[in-house]
Amino acid sequence: MIRVAIIGASGYTGAESIRIVFRHQEAELTYLTALPEECGPAEEVFPQFRGRCDLPIEPLDLNKLSESADVALCCLPHKVSMGFVPKLLDAGVKVIDFSADYRLKDVDVYEKFYQKHTDTANLAKAAYGLPELFRDEIKSTDLVANPGCFPTGAMLAIAPLLKEGLIEPDSIIVSSVTGSSGAGKNPSNVFHFPNMNENLFPYGIGVHRHMPEMEQIAGAVAGTNVQVLFQPHVGPFDRGILSSVYGRPKAGAKDEQFDELYREFYKNEPFVQICKGSPALKDVAGTNYAHVYPRLIKGHVAAFSAIDNLVKGASGQAIQNMNVLFGVDEMMGLK
Amino acid sequence: MIRVAIIGASGYTGAESIRIVFRHQEAELTYLTALPEECGPAEEVFPQFRGRCDLPIEPLDLNKLSESADVALCCLPHKVSMGFVPKLLDAGVKVIDFSADYRLKDVDVYEKFYQKHTDTANLAKAAYGLPELFRDEIKSTDLVANPGCFPTGAMLAIAPLLKEGLIEPDSIIVSSVTGSSGAGKNPSNVFHFPNMNENLFPYGIGVHRHMPEMEQIAGAVAGTNVQVLFQPHVGPFDRGILSSVYGRPKAGAKDEQFDELYREFYKNEPFVQICKGSPALKDVAGTNYAHVYPRLIKGHVAAFSAIDNLVKGASGQAIQNMNVLFGVDEMMGLK
Amino acid sequence: MIRVAIIGASGYTGAESIRIVFRHQEAELTYLTALPEECGPAEEVFPQFRGRCDLPIEPLDLNKLSESADVALCCLPHKVSMGFVPKLLDAGVKVIDFSADYRLKDVDVYEKFYQKHTDTANLAKAAYGLPELFRDEIKSTDLVANPGCFPTGAMLAIAPLLKEGLIEPDSIIVSSVTGSSGAGKNPSNVFHFPNMNENLFPYGIGVHRHMPEMEQIAGAVAGTNVQVLFQPHVGPFDRGILSSVYGRPKAGAKDEQFDELYREFYKNEPFVQICKGSPALKDVAGTNYAHVYPRLIKGHVAAFSAIDNLVKGASGQAIQNMNVLFGVDEMMGLK
Amino acid sequence: MIRVAIIGASGYTGAESIRIVFRHQEAELTYLTALPEECGPAEEVFPQFRGRCDLPIEPLDLNKLSESADVALCCLPHKVSMGFVPKLLDAGVKVIDFSADYRLKDVDVYEKFYQKHTDTANLAKAAYGLPELFRDEIKSTDLVANPGCFPTGAMLAIAPLLKEGLIEPDSIIVSSVTGSSGAGKNPSNVFHFPNMNENLFPYGIGVHRHMPEMEQIAGAVAGTNVQVLFQPHVGPFDRGILSSVYGRPKAGAKDEQFDELYREFYKNEPFVQICKGSPALKDVAGTNYAHVYPRLIKGHVAAFSAIDNLVKGASGQAIQNMNVLFGVDEMMGLK
């Protein structure tokens, strides 16, 4: 059994990770931690676990972590996480980190969007945890940077085109709509129900932090510099990201070839399904699946993907990465 | 033209009052006030009024109020309101107060649920602003206590039965579901979109402040002491209160007589409509109408009503009261 | 491994049953059937199963059923089901029937609300599949009548009071709000999104079919005749039933005793959790749990329960019944 | 008083038109018609008008139309409308037609997307009813083709850039999300509440009928051929269209100039508001306003607009057109 600790268990990705480990036949929860003010019996912190989880959520004790766990899912926020990850690794556990702190290989880019990076040594060793594109790197590391939810959806939508050089690398526009769970659990004016309900709007216009992450991944897949305009929107639903990716095709790209190209590219990837028409958020809600549909229309590429932001965009992908790290069936707990 | 000031204009009932006065042919907004930190151009405080309202929201100045307004809609919170209402009255305007501070005639009851009452003199003079039941008192006052949203819906549902003595006065159960706008504009954990969306639950079990208000009104209509068990629930939608009121009929009450009884009771009340079947929240959303449907089933009374909590349950009712106070067509601005 | 067939697999309860069996370690789906016009690969009938289910949905063939399955979950509609159940039993499988056809022991009552009963022999043998109340009967039968979603929620909310004689048997009012998935998959005017969204209303006023089912169960638990007024409402969300049950307490009932009484009554029932405050739909969504909270307030009983109508109210309860029938851990697949 | 008839009054745009005319000080509803099977008292066809509208909805009688109305709002479907519009004009009323039948000046384009056009004579005379761009044409006609909801939002978002030649005419991508009221009132599988709720997806990929309408308008504004890729999506809310329009700027375009350019372009247009940040659907819900926000980011134009699809995208725009036709204040009924 893989013994799983969750660091920062009191948020939405913590709860979702707990839910998935419950169903995993070869993993068990052994240790849940959070800030002192958010501790308590898990079934009181999360009423949905009433009667289902007898672990407490406790303040982090590195000795206890060391004794009780093989892997830590680190669900701490950006900038906070890199203060803890070195200690978790020193405690002898593998780490799957949900924050942005180990995703951007270029320290300058990280520091432009966040702050000074305090753990560049581990940053250099971290693997980017999108198994469909970087499985080999993940297998041979102790530290996985779990991808952002938006980059996961967008990159799965166009990776085959990037790989085959069928899309102009300076033309890519990612226009996404996310549900509100991406906002995390802290109440705010924007996500106050009477404000968010029956509403939809773009945000972070021109400035979103996921832009460089997308460009790094797209560049790695394409083997060349890629420019991405990323525009997120938020809508009145809980879960899911629908990404509509637009771009200019390279000369010679043909609509008819897309379906086969994608099926070939993803033929060994159980969690990526090529649709025959529009992907829809409800079809992937609660699952680790990505539904993808590419088309070439009127001289534009239009490729769509649907994922659950809390599963394939966060906790499910972390468990998938855990399965890769420990050599168990990659679908375990995620079927 | 009736010159209207809104005191505490920065909340949901303030915005809704602004929206309604816009459409009122014989009233005009002249003065909007709020706490200093919530002031600014109305179209910046409320983006929905961009280009539609050139008034600023300013800190309250009683001299300015005195010069600019004939009536103040006082949208301040419970316990805060009674600190301002005497000053508003002294400034020479009529006052329609949205808080609970002037609703409960029995000071002891008020003080049990809220705090010490500091304006009992005006409390004694205030009229309870449910025009369908207390129009005459409203006409002859300078201070109207605008009713709570739950009592409005529940009392309209059973007033004819109370009046006719067809329901046992100790048997009444009001089971209501409200939308989330009733929570006001301040973000909270409960009304955080990912918590409230796709959710529904009872709250305030056994302790709701609207209970004594209902008992006071029901008692006044019935001419006897009435006991009410009031149980509110909140659901994942913006507007509306659906009240399902249950009780034991007095001997001799007949299902067949209810429809005619209600039609007769409300025959001069344009805002109360007797339905031929289930009232539905969406049919009254955005309007000042109450849809009502009473039945006698298997030895129980079951009477239903649907209102918009922000309109008939707050701002619309306030404008209706204003129309009564100033002797203009009661439907003006509310058609 | 328990081999599971689903008869009528193309609806919402069929899909939910498929989803649950996927996770069950000692059960496997072997056969899915539907009306000819609703057949096809499961992953095309249900896009959410794309890549996850390689079974087809086929027209029913009793020989194939006999060879491939140990148990049939029969998800057919009321009145249709009793035409198939005898054949399923004859094919040698145990049957868990989702319809109302085998729930009402009194044929006259069934025939009053539905039509002439054509399989009274099996009706007499069927067990009512609410394991928390009738586990022993379920263990020794081949035919389980899976309960209605409303009776499940309402009866779990008050069974301890009925059993202990703490509630007047002629005073019970069940006021419930269900999500829209209870309507099934066929489009209708009422459930058209622009009509149902932001709406909430009572329905079936005075005439709901679940009333006699509740009275039968309540009477069996109480050991006396029980009268129930059942009033359903529907709200703008997918899943869940919140039941608010009101009644008059017997003399001597005390609020303080309720918590302990419920904990004792349900002490061996993992799926029933006694809350310390309001049960909420979102806490049970997607789970087989019932959250229950009873209070005695102002001379009334007010007992609340929250369940997921598709899980504890349908497919999850069916799997729980299957686990009882086959003697495996009752929580398997449902944790 | 302008006497208003509504032809095809039984659908959503009919109801919305009724709601707006109620508030119009210089217009009155005189005649409501629909197909015979959808006729009846307006307050029964639309429960939200209970007690508010004493007109019946009747089968169309051209003599009665001729006598009772000055203008007909023709809310019939595409392809049906052109069979009626000539008769309405012959009856001596001005016509504002909601369908696509008189929008596309190029008959071949119309016939490619719809069917053979049977009223090309009136087509040639019709004005395209987007007053902000074509007010002069509207003033001098008897037949206004009320624009599609998607073209209205998208064109208002980029008209100033098209006019000034600041966007490459072959680069325009319109990525829009609409609420479900755009689907009309007929129930369907897609808009069945349990399917549409918590869902969002693209549709009509590559084939949407609004594409040529956008290209015609954009071309007229730009004075050159324009190519548009239009991709609609639908989300789980009632009202509103958020359009995110992307394109390549012409050399020399500067982000800093956009705000002033737009303010100048729309300086006399009360219904178009230039935002200082993200437009949001909830800010325009129920109003005739368009909120617009243009930016130049990383070498792309990204211009956003929010409108209410039933108001500025349909019935409100029709009343605005009516006000232009009859020379009354363009904001009347729409403030």
List the helices and strands and how they pair.
Four copies of one chain form a homotetramer.
Chain A: E1 2-7, H1 12-22, E2 27-33, E3 40-41, H2 42-45, E4 56-58, H3 62-68, E5 71-74, H4 81-90, E6 94-97, H5 107-113, H6 120-125, E7 127-128, H7 131-139, E8 143-145, H8 149-163, E9 172-178, H9 193-196, E10 201-202, H10 210-222, E11 228-234, E12 241-247, H11 255-265, E13 272-274, H12 281-284, E14 290-297, E15 300-307, H13 311-326
Parallel strand pairs in A: 1-2, 1-5, 2-4, 5-6, 6-8, 7-8, 9-11, 13-14
Antiparallel strand pairs in A: 3-4, 9-12, 10-11, 12-15, 14-15
Helix pairs in contact in A: 1-13, 7-13, 8-10
What can you tell me about this protein's structure?
4 copies of one chain form a homotetramer. With 335 residues, chain A is α/β, with parallel strands linked by helices. The two termini of chain A are 18 Å apart. Chain A is globular and about 60 Å long. In chain A, strands 3-4-2-1-5-6-8-7 form an 8-stranded mixed β-sheet, sandwiched between helices. Chain A has a 7-stranded mixed β-sheet with strand order 10-11-9-12-15-14-13. In chain A, α1 (12-22) crosses α13, α7 runs parallel beside α13 (311-326) and α8 runs parallel beside α10 (210-222). The first copy, chain A, contains 13 helices and 15 strands. Chain A has helices at 12-22, 42-45, 62-68, 81-90, 107-113, 120-125, 131-139, 149-163, 193-196, 210-222, 255-265, 281-284, 311-326; strands at 2-7, 27-33, 40-41, 56-58, 71-74, 94-97, 127-128, 143-145, 172-178, 201-202, 228-234, 241-247, 272-274, 290-297, 300-307. In chain A, β14 (290-297) and β15 form a beta hairpin. Chain A has 2 domains: 2-125, Rossmann fold (3-Layer(aba) Sandwich), CATH 3.40.50.720; 150-309, 2-Layer Sandwich (Dihydrodipicolinate Reductase, domain 2). Chains in contact: A-B, A-C, A-D, B-C, B-D, C-D. At the C-D interface, α9 of C face α9 of D.
